[in-house]
Amino acid sequence: MSAQGERWVSSFVFLLFCASSIPRPGIAGLRQEPSPQRYFSGLEAGRASLAFFTPHVSPGTQPFLEQIESSAEALQDYGISVVKVNCPKEDISRYCGKENALRKAYLFRGNILIREFPTDALFDVNSVVANVLFALLFNEVKYVETLADLQNIENLLKGKSNMVFAYVPATGTAEHRAVMEAAFVYGTIHQFVLTTEAALLKAAGNDDPDGSSAWLLFCHCQRATDPAQPCRRTALAQPLTLLNIHRHLKLMGAPLVTEVTEDPEKVSTVHLQLGLPLVFILSQRETYEADRRTAEFVAWQLLGKAGVALLSRDLVDLNILHRSNVALKTPDEGVPIQYLVLEDTDEVITLVEDKNKVKQIQEDEEKEDEEEEEEDEDEKENNNQDIQDDQVVEAVSRDKKQELPLEQVLVLTEETFHSSLSEAARTVVLFYASWEAVSLAVLRSYSEVADHLKDTPGVLLSRVNCWDWPGICSQENVTQFPTIKIYGKGEKSVTYDGMWGTEELTSFIILSRVSCPLKLTTMDEAEGFLRGEIPPELSSHHHTSLLGVFSTATGEARETFEEAGNILSGHIMMGMYFEDDSLALSRKYSVSPPALLLARSGGRRVEGIALPKQSVQDLVQMIRYELLDIFPEITVQNLPQYLQLTKPFLILFSDGDISQMESKEMLKLAKGRPQQAFVACWLNLKRTPVGYGILRTYFAAVPSLPVLVWVNLHAEGQVFQFPPEQSITEVNILSWLEKLQAGLEIPSCTLSEEDWKPPLPAYDFLQMMEAAVPELPLHPSHHPGDMPTQHPPQSPGGDTAIREEPSQESMAGKSVSPGRDLRGTAPRLAAREKQGRRHSEL
Amino acid sequence: LGLALCVVSGTAFLYHDYCVIGAGPAGLQVAYFLQQAERDYIVFERSHAPGSFFALYPRHRKLISINKQYTGKSNSEFNLRHDWNSLLSHDRRLLFRHYSRDFFPHADTMVRYLEDFASLLDLRVQYNTAIIHVTLERNEQAWNGHYFLLTDQDRKNYKCSSLLVATGTWVPNVVNFPGSEYVEGYETVSINPEDFAGQTVLILGRGNSAFETAENILGVTNFIHMVSRSRVRLSWATHYVGDLRAINNGLLDTYQLKSLDGLLEGDLEDLAIVKDKKGKLHITLRFYLENRNISAGIDSITLPQDELDNFATRAPYDRVIRCLGWKFDFSIYNRSLRMMPGKGNINKYPQIKPSYESRGTRGLFVLGTASHSVDFRKSAGGFIHGFRYTTRAVHRLLENRHHGVPWPSTVYPITQLTNSIIKRVNEASGLYQMFSVLADLILLRENATAFEYLEEYPIGVLAELEMQTGRKAPNGLFVIIMEYGRNFSGADKDVFYYNRAVGEAQHAWQSNFLHPVIYYYKRLPTEREMKLRPPEWPLPRPDAIHHIVEDFLTDWTAPNAHILPLRRFLENCLSTDLRSFFAESCFLFAFTRQKLPPFCQQGYVRMQGLMGSEGLQRHAVQAGLLQDYTLTDFSGDRPPDSHDRSRDQLLRDQVIPVRPLQHLVNAKDE
C-alpha cells in the first residue's frame, strides 16, 4: 500500500471522528418523504439509503423505528441516508400495501434493493449500523464459517495483501459495528474476514474457552513468503472498539523497524503519537546486519505494544555509555530517553511490558552477583518441568544417602553367579539396575525380606546389578528391572510375579521352598496337610492349603493339577493325594475324586470342590477364584485380585473393624443370590488409610462412618451412597440395589474418565533448533499444528541466524544470533551467558 | 553345511552360500557371525595367516587404536567403548586387553590376536588363496538373480550366492608428476632413523602415516617439510579418528616452535622434482617444465626461486617420501559387477549404499575399511572399533534377506520405555562408536502399550526398515543415536573455548560433545524424506526431538538432569503419563478414576504393585507427591461405629495439603 493511500486513510478517519462529534439538533440526518413515489424518484445512483415505510396514520413510533431514526446520524457519516417514507392512505404498492412490509427496513443503493431487514435484526443503533454496513460491504468483508474457508482466503492473500480477521460472538453487536466501521475505512486496503463461529476462534489460536468475547487478528500475509506457513498474526489486545481497531491497524501499517539517523530525542513515530513507547536498538556499522535481525525479531515480539527503531551510533553522536545497547523513549513529555545495557531480547520485551522492571534490570546490571540469583529464581518460577513429579524416583533419590542394610544379601558377579547358585538349596536373585528408581525401591524391601529370612535355612538371598553385569542379565533373560528369580538346585528357575512388597515376597520365598504340589502318601499326612501342620517348615506360617484328591485312575487330571501347581508355586500351598484310600478321604469331605479340598488360613474349615476336566490355565484361574473371600476386607495388596473379576464393588468403609451385625448382614448379602453380580467387601480405614482419599473424592468430605458405597469401576464409573439413615441390613441393601439398577438413585459422583496425559510439557528442542537455524529446510510438509507438544505454530524467532561460533567472537557480527541473546549488538554485551551454565573445567 | 561341487560348462566350482574375500579384522568378524548362525561360508585369504596388512603396516609398528585396560567399570558392553582393537565374540578370552598392556599396542600383537581369533573360534579360512577375478553368472534361482564366480591364482573356481568383500584398502596411492621417480613410498621406505641422519626430507601427505614417518626421523634429520593439498586436520578438533592423532603430531610442535621443520599446502599435481648433479632434489612447478626436456639437465630448468627469491621450498632435499595412504583394489572385478570408485574425496572406496551393499551388484556387500565411504570423515566405520558393528548389522540384514530371520528384537511393556533407552545410551558400544550411523530403534505397538527394541540399525536405510528387518512400524518409532554438536567439530574449529559444555537439561540441544539424541516419527520416514533431509542431519525432520544433555562422565543416569526430561519427552510424544507410582497411589486411582496410568495398569493391576518401604513412602509424602492419610485418622479410642458429628467436623476442617497431590493426580493438558 502506498504511503499516500495511508495518509488518505488516516485523514479520512480523522474527519470521521470530527464529523461524528459535531452535535446536531433534533433527529439529525433523518429525512422524511411524503410518499414512496417521491422517495424512489429522488434516489441518486450509487448512493445508499435505508428506508422504512410508515402508514399514513402514524400509530406512534414503534420501538424499532425509534432505533432506526436514532441511527440516522451515525449512518450519515458513511453517506447513507435514512429515510422515513410516509405511505399515503390509498397506496397499496409493494412497500406500503402489505402489513408485514411495514415491519421491515429496506436498504437501497441507488434504486436497487440490496437487502431488507426484519425489525428484530435492528434492535439498537449498533445493530442498525453493523447490519447496514455488513450488507453494503458484502464484497469487502468476507464472512467465513469453516477453517478451510479461512485458510483459503489466507493462502490467496499471501504475498499480496494483509488480512484482518475478526471474530464476534454475534452479529449486530457493538463489536460487530466497530469491525464494520473499520472495514468501511480500511476495506480497500486490507481484506476483512468475519466469523461468528467459536470453533474458528480456537483454530486461530485463541484459547478463550467459550468464545464469549470478540477478537481481532491482524494477519501479515503480504510479507508471507512460505506458502506452507500460516501468516504471522498480531492480535488486538484491547477491546474491539473502532478507535482501538483503527489504532491497531495503523500500528500494523507502520514500518516494522524504523531506521534512525538523527538524535533520538527528536525522533517521533506513529507509536509515540499513539502513546506507545519506542525502543531503540543501538547499532554500529560492524554489527549492522545482526542488529537489524535482532531489531526485527524484537519488533515482531512487540508489535502493537511498542515501536522499534534501529539507531546507528556511527551516524549519531551520542553521549552515552559505550556498552549501552538499547534505549527506551516513552510517549510521556519530558521523560528523558533511558539508555540500558540488556542481555537478551526477553529483557527488551519485559522492559516494554512491565515498565517497573526497567529500574530493576538497571540495578541488577550493577550488582552482577545478585542478578545471577534473581535469574535463577526467575527460571524456577516459570519452569517446573525440571521438578521431579515421579513419587518413586523422588522418594528413592531423597533416600540415596541412607545406607541400606544389605549385609544379608550376597552380591553376585559374572564370576560368582553360577558357582553360588549351587551353594544353597534355593537362591533368590534380585536383578536390578543401580540407576533405576523402581528397582532401588524394591531393593529396600528386599533388604527387609533378607532380615526376615536370615534364620531360615536353605535360602540364600542375592542380587545382581545389571548395570555392572549386563551379560548375566541378558543370559538369564532379564529384560525388565527389577526381576526376582528363584533358583533351586536342578530345577527350572521361578520368576516372582507378585507384589513388590516385603510381606508378599517373604511369603512367596517361604512357600516356594516346598515343592508344589507336595505328594502326600498317608491319610494322616493328608489330614495334617489340611490342618496346616504339614509340611512342617510352614507350620508356623499362616497359609491356605489346597489338596487335590485323585483316584489312581485319573492320570490326566493329576497331571493338569501338577502343572497348575508349578505355576502357583509360592502363592499357595498345594498338596495331592492319590493313594488307594483316596476314596475314603473324599468321602469324608463328601466329594468324589478328582476333587479339591481347600482349607483357608483363617478358620481351616475344609471346603470340597469338584474338579472338572479343564486346561491348566483354566484350572489355575479356577483355583485363584476359589481363593478369593466371599466378603473380603479390601486392602492395597489384595485389590488387584478382585479387580480381575471386573464386577462392581459394594464397599463398606469402616473406621476400624466392622460390627458383627454389619458383618453378618453383609455376609448374608454376599452369599445370597446376586453374589455373581458384584464384589461385596469392606475397607478398614485404620489399616488402609488411603480409603479416606477415596471417600474424599466421592463425597468431597468424609461422611459419617461406616458408609456403604456402590462403585461401578468398570463401566460408567458411577458412585452411589447407601442412604445413611437406613440401617445396613440385607433387605435394605437389596431394595436399594434394585432401585439403583432401575436408575432411580442419583449417583454421588461419577469417576473421572480422563486419560492419563503427560503431566507437563517437554522441552521443545525442535522449535528451539528451528528458531536458531532458520535456513534449514526443516519445515514439515504437513500442517505444523499437529506437533506432539502444543505450542503456537508461528515462531517469531524464525528468521535468526546460526548460534554464534565462539571462535568468531572476535569477529563480532559476522554470524551472530539475535535469537534469544543480543550477543551481536554493539558493543558486545557483557559476557554473561544466558544460554545455560556450562563447565569448561572442573 | 554342504560343500557342494557343481559343474557348469566344463568348469568345476566349489559352492558356498557366502564367500568372504580377505581374512583381516572385517573378514574374520563376519566369519564369526556366519559361523554363529551356522551358515555355509568360506573366507579366502591370499596370505598364509590372517591380518596380512598388519604384518607390514603401520611401518613403524605402533597401532594408534587405544587399548584401555581399566575404565573403573565391569560392564563389558560399556568397556568396548574404550577398546578399539577387539573383535566382537562371545569368547571373553578374545579381548585385546588380554593380548597387550600397551595403550597403543604393537602391530604384531594385532596379527597374533587375529590368528587367535580365527583359530580359537574355528573360523573357516582358506589361506594362500588370492582371488584374482570375480564375475557374475546369471541364474533365476540364485538369491540375487546371479551367482558370483571367483577365480584364484591357481585358476581354481568358486561359486557363491553372496559375496562379502573385506579386502580393505591396500593399494598405495601414487601421484604422478615429473620427477616422481625420485620419490620413495611409505611401504618401502627405511624405518631406521640412522639412514636419515643429517638429511633434509620432504614428505608428501598429511595423514597419520606421514606424521608417523616424520615422528620416527624427527630427531636426526636437518629438517622435514611436509606438503599436502589441504590443511592438517587434527582428530581432536574433528572428532574423527582417521585424522591426525595427537600421538603422531610431534612435527606440529617443532613447526610452530620454529625448529626448522615445516608444513606447506600445495597441490601435488602441480609439483615437479628435478635432481641436480649432486643428487639433491629440487622442487619446481610442472608449469615451468612444459615444453622442456628434463633430460636437458637441471641448469636449463627454471626453478621458482629464480623468479621469486624467497620461495619457501628453495632448499634442496635429500629424500622425498610419499605417504599418501591406500585405496581399494578395483582390479579383480569384472566390468559386469560395476564396482565403481566413489566420487570426490571418497574415490579410494567402492560405491556402496548405506546398507553396505554395492551400488552396482545386488548381493555384494563391502565390509571393513573399504566400506568407509558411508561415514568417511564422520564416524568410525573405517576402523575396527566401528566396522565390527557395521559388519554385525550387515550380517543381520543378510539373515533377514536370505534366511527369513528377522532383525533381533525384544518386546517390552511401555513402562520400560525410559529404562530401555537409559540402559542403552549408557552402555551400548555400537551406538557410541558408530555415532550418527547406527541407531537403536523403538517401534511402537498399537495404542503405545508396548514397544519393540531393535539395536544398531544403519540409519541410512531407515526408510527400508520393514523390508530390511522384517519388523513393522505402523504406529510410529523412536530413533536413538549419538551425536556431536553441529558446528562444534572441524579442522578449523577451536574445541577448547570457554563454556564449551552445556550443563543444563533445558539447553541440551546445544550440547557439543557426544550425547544421545532421540528422534520421534509418527510414521516411518520415506525414501524421499531421507533424501531431502537437511544437510548435516543424519535423519529427516522428526515430529519431535530430544537431546539428553552431554555429560562429562558420559553417565546419563541422573534422575533430574537426564531421566526426567527424557520421560517428559516420551510422555508428550505418546500423550501418556509414564511416571511410576506406589501401590497405594494405584489403589487410590483404581477407586477414583476410570482409567489408570500405564505403570499401575501394567504393574499393580497385574498384581505386581510396588508396595515401597515405609521409609520411601515417608520421603514421597515429604516431597508432596504422596499423601499421608493416617494423619486424618486420630479417633483411635472412639468406638468404631460411633457417628460422631464433631469428628466429622474435624475431618472437614482438617487442612489437608491437597495441592501437591493435585499436581500428581491432575493430568490435564496445559
Q: Main sheet of chain A?
A: 5 strands, mixed
Q: What oligomeric assembly is this protein in? A: heterodimer
CATH topology descriptor of the domain at 630-753 in chain A: Glutaredoxin
Side-by-side strand order of the widest sheet of chain A: 1-3-2-4-5
Percentage beta strand of chain B: 15-25%
Nearest-integer average pLDDT of chain A: 77
Fraction of residues in helix of chain B: 10-25%
For the record, the CATH architecture of the largest domain in chain B stands as 3-Layer(bba) Sandwich
Classify the secondary structure makeup of chain A into a structural class: alpha/beta
Shape assignment of chain B: globular
Structural class of chain B comes to: alpha/beta
GO molecular function, one term (chain B): monooxygenase activity
GO cellular component, one term (chain B): endoplasmic reticulum lumen
Cofactor (chain B): FAD
Subunit structure (chain B): Interacts with SEL1L. May interact with OS9 and DNAJC10. Interacts with TXNDC16.
Any key phrases for this structure?
heterodimer; A: 842 residues; alpha/beta; Glutaredoxin; five-stranded mixed sheet; 30 strands; 34% helix; 17% strand; disordered C terminus; B: 670 residues; FAD/NAD(P)-binding domain; 4 domains; eight-stranded mixed sheet; six-stranded antiparallel sheet; 25% helix; globular; disordered N terminus
